[in-house]
Write a structure and sequence with these properties.
2 copies of one chain form a homodimer.
Chain A lengths: L2 E4 L3 E4 L11 E11 L1 H6 L8 E2 L3 E8 L9 E4 L2 E2 L5 H4 L10 E3 L3 E2 L6 E5 L3 E3 L6 H4 L2 H13 L7 E5 L3 H11 L4 E6 L2 H8 L4 E4 L8 E6 L4 H8 L2 E9 L7 E3 L1 H6 L3 E4 L5 H9 L9 E6 L3 H9 L5 E5 L2
Parallel strand pairs in A: 12-13, 12-15, 13-14, 15-16, 16-18, 19-20
Antiparallel strand pairs in A: 1-2, 1-4, 3-5, 3-10, 3-20, 5-6, 6-11, 7-8
Helix pairs in contact in A: 4-5, 4-9
Chain lengths: 317, 317
């Protein structure tokens, strides 16, 4: 099969072996996949991953033990867990120390004709949702994870920093709480997507000076942390959604003095993401910058890395 | 009056002007005061403070508008706030941006014959508590602040790192929750104080490998953060109680991947600290390493800076 592989360099493999689903797993024919910042970071060395990239997808189940799933259109949670260790039994399977993660850690990903995932990870997609919306379920779930972790009250002042793909999803999700939200970014055309939905979105240097109860760093770079930190009220919460290669110098004493809470936030729940998309409460299709066939995967990656680009999709079947 | 002053160097001033209480404030004759790690950090440049040091004290009210307070033995909350700004009105006066802090920021401290504090900051000390216990109310309140911020459940595994003054108070307070607590330190004689109270206290390199739901860093130095971070379970909480001069390199991406919560924690509530001491639920007197008269304040500071020393007190009147 065809696969977009990273093994020190990114390349399109033509005769990559088609995966064989072990017991409990399903073979999925991939229809559409999305390039995430994490994919771009992996190509820069993040996680040290080698293999087929990609973890945002929608596809059709081709083979699996549960016949009711065969032929169904699905999206899939990306963390594959053992289900038996203390972490899994404590209800945190996405943190299973034995986990593999689709296209990120120990498991080939979605930029290929086929992928395999445990049946338990799959969610069927309602007919009303087209592929272009369904492919956003995984990053939208990651945005919703913030609300699993932090109680964002309707009376709170909230700042989202970053107008990239994740920032625009996070802003839309937090806007649904009724909170006093302002988004800071660097691209007028991206901020305009939020303004069209009634969200106060401004160039970062035009943000009001008033500090916020909750600040979410979706900038994807180390400098974003410092900027976000400066916007949090004493006793406020700074949510970290960015992953990148390398360390950041942090003044921990000032976190103590201001009693700031930092919350790292990663993968989130798929079911509510599907509900929000089905109810039309989040707009994802205006986030699509371009769609390329898998055969033009290298060009797609080049496009995705360009400043100002939002979501680049790979049309696979 | 006499005062232990830091103005680039530490010195005992003999003719320091006695403070005059403005409206709303009380003049307190200091009886006994405690040297805190923050005092030692200030002498190394932390906060850039200059003036009379000291913020842990017990004293007697000599002058104030409320006659019922005159002659009463008191301890005092150290943050003096405006009461009118949005932060104060939001119920976080210890974070008032206009605050002064006794012996730390913009206000002379307790290592002197007299201090002034707003009447609203004073708590009368029950007769059953002697001065040697009452002088620990301020650091014990800081230990209790953790429980104001983080729900420590009885079933949780908790690690306290650091067997200094604050570490021993934090360990005792957290032990009262019934949680599965282990304390890591570097001084057998300090750990023994906790063991006598039934707390599992070990040398840091003999801590069990099992990770914890909550880890509290009371080490007081940058390396403590890295050690503490390595002991937190995914989705666990790392409480920062240490303040020190300088920054620390932090891998923020790994906080995201493991969805760790960092909580900065500073000053806490006095009333529950007084209750715990009155009920004999926390032992503080075994934490006293030495007591010096104020006139020997410089020697007291030298002693307090020696490795292995716990609380050094200054007997003032």
């Amino acid at each position: 099969m065809r696969a977009l592989v990273y093994d020190g360099q990114l390349r399109l493999a033509e005769g990559y072996p088609r995966p064989e689903p072990p017991p409990g797993e399903a073979l999925v024919r991939v229809k559409l996949a999305g390039i995430c910042n994490t994919d771009l970071e992996i190509v820069r060395g993040y996680m040290g991953f080698q293999g087929v990239l990609g973890h945002e997808f929608v596809g059709v189940v081709e083979e699996c033990a549960d016949e009711s799933l065969v032929g169904r259109r699905v999206v899939g949670e990306i963390n594959c867990y053992c289900g038996e260790c203390p972490t899994c039994r404590a209800g945190a399977p996405t943190h299973c120390p034995h986990r593999t993660t689709l296209g990120i850690w120990g498991r080939d990903g979605a930029f290929a004709d086929y992928l395999i995932l445990p049946m338990a990870n799959l969610h069927t997609v309602p007919q009303a949702l087209n592929d272009e919306a369904a492919v956003f379920v995984e990053p939208l779930a990651a945005a919703l994870e913030i609300l699993e972790q932090v109680q964002v009250k309707p009376t709170m002042r909230v700042v989202v920093l970053g107008d990239g793909k994740l920032g625009l999803l996070v802003a839309q999700v937090l806007g649904l709480t009724g909170c006093d939200l302002v988004v800071g970014g660097h691209h007028e055309e991206k901020l305009a997507i939020l303004r069209q939905r009634g969200i106060d979105a401004r160039l970062a240097d035009e943000l009001p000076p008033e500090k916020a109860d909750v600040v979410v760093d979706c900038t994807g770079h180390p400098g974003g942390f410092t900027a976000a930190r400066g916007m949090v009220k004493p006793r406020g919460t700074l949510v970290l959604k960015s992953t990148f290669h390398g360390d950041v110098e942090v003044n921990l004493s000032m976190l103590v003095v201001d009693e700031i809470t930092l919350v790292g936030s990663r993968c989130g729940p798929f079911a509510p993401a599907l509900r929000l998309l089905e109810d039309g409460l989040v707009d994802v299709e205006s986030l699509i910058s371009a769609t390329y066939p898998l055969d033009e995967g290298l060009t797609a990656f080049e496009q995705a890395q360009k400043k100002g680009t939002l979501k680049v999709l790979l049309k696979i079947q």
